[in-house]
Design brief:
alpha+beta, about 35% helix, metal-binding, Ribosomal Protein L22, Chain A, two-stranded antiparallel ribbon, about 130 residues, 4-PPantetheinyl_Trfase_dom_sf, magnesium ion binding, 4-PPantetheinyl_Trfase_dom, EC 2.7.8.7
Length: about 130
C-alpha cells in the first residue's frame, strides 16, 4: 500500500506585518503565538521579523492542512515550526496532534512535510501531510 496525501495547506504573509506586531506587542506577541523552542533562532544575523514570519506561515499552512484552521481545538502553540538555517520541521501537540490522529487512516502513519521560504518582502510556507 503506497503513501496517500491526507492534507495540504499553504500561506503567504508580508514580513512587514509581523515586524509591526513585534514592535507594537513585543514579547507578549511572541509568547502568545510561539513556544519557547520556536523562539530560538539559529545562526547569527537572523532577521527576527523574517524568522517569525516564516514560522507564522508554517503554522497557518499546517492548520489548513489539518482542515481546521486555527480553530476547533487547534491553537497557535499546538503547531510548532522549528527552523534551522536551511530547513524547518513541524511538531504537533494538544489539539493539533489530536486532529492529525483523527485524519490518519487506521493502520497508517502520518508524516508532516513543511517548507518555509522568504525574500525581502514576503514569507511563505507549504505543508503536506501524508500517510503510509
Amino acid at each position: 500500500m503506497g503513501s496517500v496525501i491526507i492534507g495540504a495547506g499553504t500561506d503567504l504573509c508580508y514580513i512587514e506585518r509581523i515586524r509591526r506586531s513585534l514592535r507594537r506587542f513585543g514579547d507578549a506577541y511572541l509568547e502568545q503565538l510561539f513556544t519557547k523552542d520556536e523562539r530560538a533562532p539559529h545562526g547569527s544575523g537572523v532577521d527576527l521579523a523574517t524568522f517569525y514570519t516564516r514560522a507564522f506561515c508554517g503554522k497557518e499552512a499546517c492548520a489548513k492542512a489539518l482542515g481546521t484552521g486555527l480553530a476547533n481545538g487547534v491553537g497557535w502553540r499546538d503547531i510548532e515550526v522549528l527552523q534551522t538555517q536551511n530547513c524547518a520541521t513541524l511538531r504537533l501537540s494538544n489539539g493539533a496532534f489530536e486532529r492529525l490522529r483523527q485524519l490518519t487512516p487506521t493502520g497508517r502513519r502520518a508524516t508532516l512535510h513543511v517548507t518555509c521560504a522568504s525574500d525581502q518582502q514576503m514569507a511563505q510556507a507549504f505543508v503536506v501531510i501524508s500517510a503510509f
